[in-house]
Specification:
Blueprint lengths: L2 H4 L12 E5 L2 E5 L5 E4 L5 E2 L12 H12 L4 H20 L9 E5 L5 H9 L4 E6 L2 H7 L6 E5 L13 E7 L5 H7 E12 L5 H7 L8 H9 L3 E15 L1 H9 L9 H9 L5 E14 L1
Parallel strand pairs: 4-7, 5-6, 5-8, 6-7, 8-9
Antiparallel strand pairs: 1-2, 2-3, 9-11, 10-11
């Protein structure tokens, strides 16, 4: 793994620094207390301690997400994140932040690493770490960009990172651990959070029986972070998607509704949609500074 990233990692058992060790063809990260964590042949390291409370997205969901994102449908989100991350990095640099020669961008709940890769493309001096609990997702994330490393980690627990080690932290449609986000983020860094608005995919919710966005979503996000962060900017990103029926099926299959819809019934409903299917992308991007 990239030593610039390993240098920021910490043992999830004792919080000591980690270093890469090899034995034959096997690779692992080990701390001075001899806790050892295997690096999978697909490139990600398992930094879980014990069994995760859930397995995350399935292989089918990850494939659907990879296909949908590769088609460019969510490029509006990736571009906005890249712009916000560039602004955050510039601000940290102007403040003389001790973020090292290679600022670290962490994506907590990274999925396939698509958005993280877009941010790194905009920050040529940065390195990135994708954290997720889904092994199928991490197999892709580890290959998402030459400056990305990936780790299996439960973001509800202590993150396997040093204090104040992170310049930019991404959180896109993923759970938020305010206390840990604050611990690992440098005081001059920024947390970028993307959540759906009530208008997101609204054209599909009723006709396909999808999960609805909680009307109190924005308030809940703010409440989960308020003790540790100040929200300094907010923008609503909107785009009109023109999708084929197979793309609609892929869109549903990559999100949380995939766990709650009957595939056969869903296919029948999608078959009745006129093509192209007009769908609204509407998400909220908020920028948070550590308190």
């Amino acid at each position: 793994m990239d030593p610039r990233i390993v240098d920021r990692l910490r043992c999830p058992v004792c919080a000591e620094p980690l270093a890469e060790a090899t034995a034959g063809t096997a690779r692992a990260l080990r701390c001075p207390r001899r806790h050892s964590f295997d690096v999978a042949r697909q490139g990600y390291v398992n930094l879980l301690t014990g069994r995760a409370p859930h397995v995350g997205d399935s292989a089918e969901m990850v494939t659907a997400r990879a296909d949908f994102l590769a088609a460019g449908h969510y490029d509006t989100v990736s571009t906005a994140l890249a712009d916000a991350a560039r602004d955050a990095a510039d601000r940290a640099g102007a403040a003389g932040a001790a973020l090292g020669a290679y600022p670290l961008v962490v994506d907590a709940g990274a999925g396939t690493g698509w958005h993280l890769a877009a941010v790194l493309a905009a920050l040529p001096d940065a390195v990135g770490l994708a954290l997720d609990v889904s092994k199928p997702a991490l197999r892709r994330a580890a290959q998402a960009h030459p400056r990305v490393a990936a780790a299996l980690a439960d973001t509800w627990q202590r993150l396997p990172l040093a204090d104040a080690s992170t310049a930019v932290l991404l959180n896109v449609f993923a759970p938020r651990n305010g206390a840990e986000f604050r611990r690992v983020l440098h005081p001059a860094g920024a947390l970028l959070v993307v959540t759906p608005t009530g208008a997101h995919l609204a054209e599909l919710v009723d006709v396909l029986g999808l999960l609805r966005v909680d009307p109190a979503k924005a308030d809940r996000v703010a409440g989960s972070l308020a003790a540790h962060f100040d929200e300094v900017a907010e923008s609503v990103l909107r785009a009109r998607l023109e999708l084929t029926r197979p793309e609609v099926a892929t869109l549903v299959g990559m999100g949380p509704s995939a766990w709650h819809t009957d595939p056969a019934a869903l296919a029948v409903r999608i078959a009745t949609l006129p093509e192209p299917v007009g769908v609204t992308l509407a998400v909220r991007l908020t920028v948070h500074r550590p308190r």
